[in-house]
């Protein structure tokens, strides 16, 4: 299944509506109103007042009527809607107000980074691009997840593995959280690379074929999570808890270096047994 590239105007409209509806007027110190609110969150009039723009402007934005807000207006909307840093960057991308290199789409590993992935052994490590395509990996990561050499190139994608691969999709004890965090990253990447047809096709495939992805994608969460913990049940050595760290090289900012470390002694022992095989 394929889909068109990002329709920024419609996505901007939908994103503004969802962010407005999630806010509690009481948290913003707004005076109570006697009239019952028909929809959750802030009214358009309240957002307009907080952002210093007209109500008609908010209406036209939320109706996708072709407006392109300036950087100052985007900043005002981000403040009014109390956007988190990743959400703010997403809004700037949708409004075409954040500089980026639109022609640079990374599909292969930079050789020095590929060598670094190998040098990080015995720590499991891999190199990703913005789509979560796995560009390079070391033996420890292959033993922990799945033998990536046996997969088709189109399947070497960490989100595809988590959603579609019969072994890896059952790995994570907290699969909902792992999928949710991955989707929040993909949404940010989708806005930052609106002309990447391969990414939009991938998202369309996931939306059509996986109910969990479709449900979570519709929530429009945006977050780039570069550090955290995952707990997986490996079929050979049992439960392994890892801490992961995601690094963005200055020379190649569109590539992500992901490194796993055992989170406790039992997990380290399990990793040692697994890699010894």
Write the layout of secondary structure elements.
Elements: H1 8-21, H2 44-51, H3 55-62, H4 71-80, H5 85-94, H6 111-119, E1 125-128, E2 134-137, H7 139-144, H8 158-164, H9 175-192, H10 197-209, H11 211-217, E3 227-234, E4 238-247, E5 256-262, H12 265-276
Antiparallel strand pairs: 1-2, 1-5, 3-4, 4-5
Q: SS-based structural class?
A: alpha+beta
What is the CA-CA span between the terminal residues? Answer: 40 Å
CATH topology (level 3) name of the largest domain: Beta-Lactamase
CATH uppermost class of the largest domain = Alpha Beta
Tally of separate domains:
2
Question: What letter string, H or E per element, gives the SSE order?
Answer: HHHHHHEEHHHHHEEEH
Shape: elongated
Strand residues, percent: 5-15%
Mean pLDDT: 89
Main sheet: which strands, in order across? Answer: 2-1-5-4-3
Low-confidence stretches: none
Give the total of beta strands: 5
CATH architecture of the largest domain: 2-Layer Sandwich
Rg calculated over all Cα atoms: 21 Å
Number of helices, counting only DSSP H or I runs of 4 residues or more: 12
Helix content: 40-55%
**Main beta sheet:** 5 strands, antiparallel
Protein name: Transcriptional regulator with XRE-family HTH domain
InterPro entries: Cro/C1-type_HTH, Lambda_DNA-bd_dom_sf, MLTR_LBD
Pfam families: HTH_31, MLTR_LBD
